What does this fold into?
Amino acid sequence: MSANAETKALTPSDIASRKGKTPLVCLTAYTTPMARLVDAHCDIALVGDSVGMVLHGLSSTLGVTLDMMSLHGKAVRRGLERALMVVDMPFGSYEESPEQAFRNAARLMTETGCAAVKLEGGERMAATIGFLAARGVPVMAHVGLTPQAVNTLGGYHVQGRGGDAKRVMRDAAATAEAGAFAVVLEKVPEALARRITAEIAIPTIGIGASAACDGQILVVDDVLGMFTSFRPKFIKRYAELGEQVEAAIAAYARDVRERRFPGAEHVFGDAPKGIKGGEAA
Ligand code: KIV
It folds into this structure.
């Protein structure tokens, strides 16, 4: 499948209308070439703040800035024709007030051309989601494990086990009622994901939340197996590119050191005849 000039880009309402239908396919993208590959097969391309950990080597998403999201958002925009582009609002760019959230969401939309933003939080962010949605900013919400809250959650654990399930349910319901067009459910038990998906009116997009959700999202580098040592339970690796890239770089290094690269087929002919007697001499 490949998009062409007549391809119509999906809108937040198209995504919302897929509730309970064919599962939504979503991946992250941070660069133009990856966005092109994702666009051919996915409904949503998320410029996730995971970019900070995946491409910039940060130890959490907390150090990600609006400038970083804007730069990667612009790059992804150039690679998309059909998929809905959603850009993450980074930590500190929206929690202070609905007005702060609107100012920064508007910046991301105008600078990157994205059609929607994603922010983390349920009940506590409901007023902000409503404020944005009423002012032309479609919002994808994110509840369950919210990585920007790693310090208050005490780590990247499964959320909503035991008595905590009610909190996650209230969070998901609050985002739907506030006007989000979809909600990411991260790292919650399957039974809870099933219940939330049945009870709320907007699509649930799962990551570590089972096939009971209305769609799935993963970090594209995880799907491609770019990180040899990072293997969480909820990720299925569809390739082992990390190993392949390592082997390719090692082979290149060997060839250069042993003067096997460049070979005859990689060099240009016609050495400068008479260079000693000519102008170049
Ligand atoms: O930042 C991110 O990539 C995300 C998802 C994987 C849901 O929030």
Summary: DSSP finds eleven helices and eight strands in the chain. Residues 28, 46, 48-50, 88, 142, 184, 207, 217, 219 surround 3-methyl-2-oxobutanoic acid (CB under 6 Å). Residues 242-267 form one domain. The chain has a mean pLDDT of 95.
